[in-house]
Known about the structure:
The structure is a single chain. The chain is an alpha+beta fold. 23% of the residues lie in helices and 50% in strands. Helix 1 packs antiparallel against helix 2. The longest helix has 16 residues, at 108-123.
Amino acid sequence: MLAELHVELVAADRSVWSGEATLVVARTESGDIGVMPNHEPLLGVLQSGPVTVRTSEGGTVVAAVHGGFISFADNKLSVLAEIAELADEIDVQRAERALERAKADADAAGERRAEVRLIAATSGSR
């Protein structure tokens, strides 16, 4: 049996996803990080980006995450996000409109949020 880690993906307003995984990839201030079972303990600040979870059943869960923290110890990984949406919850047309609006308004942060949502939505449908 493969080693597993327990993952809790939580947004400020709800629990987004919880389960067993073999790998989690997230974007931190110091770059992308992959966490597997028995990883060294860590605490990091999340940047807007997709979080990809390879589940123990062989599936993939992708979420668009904006801000927050990631922590790992004793094979328990917590992603505590300000905002998090699973790929299948994202309305692609709405995200595309938000991207166009952000570009028109020269809103770099809004542009990044919309891009992350589109990345998560399209990679979650593989």
